[in-house]
Amino acid sequence: MEKDEREIAERLEAATTLLERTLSWLEERQSALTGEVEKISATVEQSRRETELTEKLASAERELAELKAAAAPTAMNPLRRTVPASTSEMLAKHGIGDGPVDVRALDAALTGLSLEQRIAVKSQLLRAGAIA
Fold it and tell me: Does pLDDT of 62 surpass 90?
């Protein structure tokens, strides 16, 4: 009987050892499957991407501000300051002189022209700085 009890005890110890190894392996496997490391790395990737996008946005805003600053003097002081002679003659016939043009008087003077011609005349006056 003692021999049987020893065999059972040895078999129980062997089974316990195998169960401990299996439990250890399962715990390692479980920690690998939880995905915690992936979530952390994804968070790092996301914040890195946000930083890149923020830098690109700031760069684009600076470039836009520079372009606006470069274009502002051109819009305020157009290169062409004269109105073509034909436009001046047509405006003079309607009593509109060289000074700033009243928009209502200009519209009344241009009623006989087609839409394209009115747009062309107004564009010329805008470039010359005669109307604002």
Answer: yes
